[in-house]
Automatic annotation (TrEMBL):
Protein name from the UniProt record: 16S rRNA (cytosine(967)-C(5))-methyltransferase
This protein's UniProt keywords: Cytoplasm, Methyltransferase, RNA-binding, rRNA processing, S-adenosyl-L-methionine, Transferase
Alphabetical list of PANTHER family matching this protein: NOP2 YEAST -RELATED NOL1/NOP2/FMU SUN DOMAIN-CONTAINING, RIBOSOMAL RNA SMALL SUBUNIT METHYLTRANSFERASE B-RELATED
Subcellular location: Cytoplasm
Length: 441
């Protein structure tokens, strides 16, 4: 296979995402490897793919008046990709964008298509894109402006109010900072920062958590510190989970939905070589990732088992775990900056189906918690039904549990309400996330 240039590779990824072949983050890594894309081109490919995907609905609104008839999906993606560069990237001159786009169209099809691509882009250059001010309905306008489906903007507006929704939608368009967790069983944060800086990375302490660092320059996966197991790539919101579980030495802990092991390994680090964390996930290939991460970090107190946690009660004696974590499968609406494709595919039906799974896993997990033990429920979504709704279901159906106060760092405390922590992406720049704890009486 000949190597593809960055724009053509971006087009391939956009097409594959539309055909639901895989998630954007996984596809991007595959294409980078397959086409041996390196250096600044990795950044450009990421920007083109994520940018075009993030702004899809806005770009379609802008393109609509210039398209006389329906075009093939790859042509539409090529036009979106070109328009994204024209509108949002100021370093690439329009003539270069037009030339490249027409060349791609020629390589992929006949003259008619390349002529049409050329014509549409030149017409946009001449006339400019249509104004969004024509849209009078505030929810519809926000939907187009920030490229979130209207049903979702309406749902968030009903649940959290328009202003919060607007901030969330706007934040979702910004690239997130990469953050990492320091493996405190092996080093200190100061030491890791020194080492990373000597490797040429630019990093700083997280203002939220003592074990977290933020990368301002460079992908930390490529650092020696990562290879040596001194850090794990993890979002700061996700790191709050192990912090609220009140982990103490020698505890036996169950992680019901654990792959790829971000929280399992954090829990194991907090156990500091004592006790044990047993990590479950559905399939063998996912469970393998947990093991690989634990091995890289040098953690011996992790056991992994592939199993459906909706049947986990059959596998253990009741009431044997000090702590149980259900980091549930969810709609993922808190991580749209990292996985923009989610916003176009998730539906209200998915939310309902996920809620049923969340209830089933919690029901099984509840039996396994020791009296006095803590059950933690978390999701990376922003949705009241999946979050507070599931908490309410649990408390109503399991009277042997009570809501348990979350002990979080002072900076996060103002975001705890009714013993639940809902973080919005705009709060700290970290992922949208939800956490609640229940204590068995
Ligand atoms: C939010 S992710 C977990 C992330 C993980 N806790 C971490 O911090 O790296 C949810 C996980 O639940 C798993 N899952 C979905 N349904 C499940 C089930 N019925 N039993 C066990 N795991 C399940 C998915 O495979 C997915 O890996």
């Amino acid at each position: 296979m000949p190597k593809k240039n960055v724009r053509e590779a971006a087009l391939d990824i956009l097409e594959a995402i539309e055909k639901h072949q895989s998630y954007s983050n996984l596809l991007l890594n595959k294409v980078i490897e397959k086409n041996h894309i390196t250096g600044p081109d990795v950044g450009l490919l990421t920007e083109l793919t994520y940018g075009t995907l993030q702004r899809k609905l806005t770009l379609d609104y802008y393109l609509k008046p210039f398209l006389q008839k329906k075009v093939e999906p790859w042509v539409l993606n090529l036009l979106r990709l070109s328009l994204y560069q024209m509108l949002y990237l100021d370093k690439i001159p329009d003539r270069a964008i037009l030339f490249e786009s027409v060349e791609i169209a020629k390589r992929r099809s006949h003259r008619g298509v390349s002529g049409m691509v050329n014509g549409v882009l030149r017409a946009i250059q001449r006339k400019g894109v249509p104004s969004l001010d024509k849209i009078k309905d505030a929810v519809e306008k926000l939907s187009i402006e920030t490229s979130h489906p209207q049903w979702l903007v309406q749902r968030w507006t009903d649940q959290f109010g328009f202003e919060k929704t607007k901030k969330m939608c706007e934040t979702n368009l910004m690239a997130p900072l990469q953050t990492a967790r320091v493996n405190l069983t092996r080093t200190t944060r100061e030491e890791v920062i020194k080492q990373l800086e000597s490797e040429g990375f630019l990093v700083q302490e997280s203002p939220i958590l003592v074990e977290a660092i933020q990368s301002l320059k460079g992908n930390l996966v490529h650092s020696d510190c990562y290879q040596k197991g001194l850090i794990s790539i993890q979002d700061e919101s996700s790191m709050i989970v192990a912090n609220v579980m009140e982990i103490e030495p020698n505890q036996l802990i169950l992680d019901c939905c654990a792959a790829p092991g971000g929280k399992t390994t954090h829990i194991a680090e907090k156990l500091n070589g004592t006790g044990k964390v047993i990590a479950h996930d559905l399939h063998e290939h996912k469970v393998k990732l947990i093991k690989e991460n634990a091995d890289r970090l040098g953690l011996q107190n992790v056991e992994t088992i592939a199993m459906d946690s909706r049947k986990i009660g059959e596998h253990y004696q009741s009431e044997i775990f000090d702590r149980v974590l259900v980091d549930a499968p969810c709609s993922g609406l808190g991580v749209l900056r990292r996985k923009p494709d989610i916003k176009y595919v998730k539906t209200i039906h998915d939310i309902r189906a996920l809620q049923t799974i969340q209830h089933s896993i919690l029901t099984e997990a509840a039996q396994l918690v020791k009296p006095g033990g803590i059950l933690t429920y978390s999701t990376c979504t922003v949705d009241k039904e999946e979050n507070e709704g599931t908490v309410q279901y649990f408390l109503e159906n399991f009277p042997d549990f009570e809501a348990y106060s979350l002990h979080v760092p002072a900076t996060i405390q103002p975001f705890v309400q009714n013993n639940c922590l809902q973080i919005f992406p705009q709060d700290f720049g970290s992922d949208g996330f939800f956490i609640a704890c229940f204590k068995k009486r």
